Amino acid sequence: MNLNGNLIQNNKQIFNNLNRAFKYGDALFETIKVADLKVIFLEDHYFRLMASMRMLRMEIPMNFSLDFFQEEIIKTVTESNFQNARVRVTVFRNDGGLYLPEDNKVNFLIEVSELKLGSKQNYEIDVFKDYFIYSGLLSTIKTTNKLTNVLASIYASENGFDNCILLNEKKNVVETLNGNIFLVNNNTLKTPPISEGCIKGIVRKKIIEIVNKSDKFNLEETQISPFDLLKADEIFITNAIIGIQSVTKYKKKAFNKEVAKELAEELQKLV
């Protein structure tokens, strides 16, 4: 691990009972892919983190530049003897205070684990209906308040699904447990707009850029109901680690993978 620039063995205790991420979920995180010691989509992750810190009124350290961000990630990955790694960068406010923090200064923690590449060939999903993601700006940033995702993950595990779709209070599709969602109908791709409460995903952004430059595909950022899932030709999930994961089954409907494969090739060119 890397705590504020200091490398630490991952079995060392680093928090106490005053930690605000533990007490109030007063923290943000980025999940980042490192391949061949290259931080993938570095600038996008960095600027999303900076924008999120400003939203949460966190004080951005003077030395927390793009180069510093990259150097600390690579230092931690290299020390762990990895070439390919899954990296989590967590930023949390200083200890102390109740709901009102004593100050807005922050700490950062970088954790790395070895990355095993590849997507699953058979991938079944369901809709999680017990609890909702609420639409609004706070839902669009990656905070450590993820109880809905935790409960939906348990539901998926207990019922043999690979993933679950999360809904908002309007019962529209928002995203999946670990990424954004796209539906394909003929040559039109549909994805929920940010106003529905979905995370401002890095790969989501890249797919939108690819489609907007394409003469072959059209993009609609639009409200999606659970009923629309069964009408789709394809469904795929995007996140920073896997890139694109095709869904092969929802209820009794089987889905194609052709558009997802084509977009995955275009995405790899950007990488």
Structural summary, described in words:
With 271 residues, the protein is an alpha+beta fold. The protein folds into two domains: 113 residues, 2-Layer Sandwich (D-amino Acid Aminotransferase, Chain A, domain 1); 147 residues, D-amino Acid Aminotransferase, subunit A, domain 2 (D-amino Acid Aminotransferase, Chain A, domain 2), CATH 3.20.10. 27% of the residues lie in helices and 30% in strands. It has seven helices and 16 strands. It has a six-stranded antiparallel sheet with strand order 2-1-6-5-3-4. Strand 11, helix 5 and strand 12 form a beta-alpha-beta unit. Helix 5 packs across helix 7. The chain is globular. The chain starts with a strand and ends with a helix. The model has no long low-confidence stretch (mean pLDDT 96).
Describe, in short, the structure shown:
The chain is α+β, with helices and mostly antiparallel strands and 271 residues long. Helices cover 27% and strands 30% of the residues. It starts with a strand and ends with a helix.
**CATH superfamily caption of the largest domain:** D-amino Acid Aminotransferase, subunit A, domain 2
| Rg result | 19 Å
Tell me the total number of β-strands: 16
CATH topology of the largest domain: D-amino Acid Aminotransferase, Chain A, domain 2
Weakly predicted, low-confidence segments = none
**Separate helix tally:** 7
Broad shape? globular
Tell me the helix content.
25-40%
Taken in chain order, the helices and strands follow as EEHEEHHEEEHEEEEHEHEEEEH
Largest sheet: 6 strands, antiparallel
Spatially, the strands of the biggest sheet line up as 2-1-6-5-3-4
Would you tell me the structural class of the helices and strands?
alpha+beta
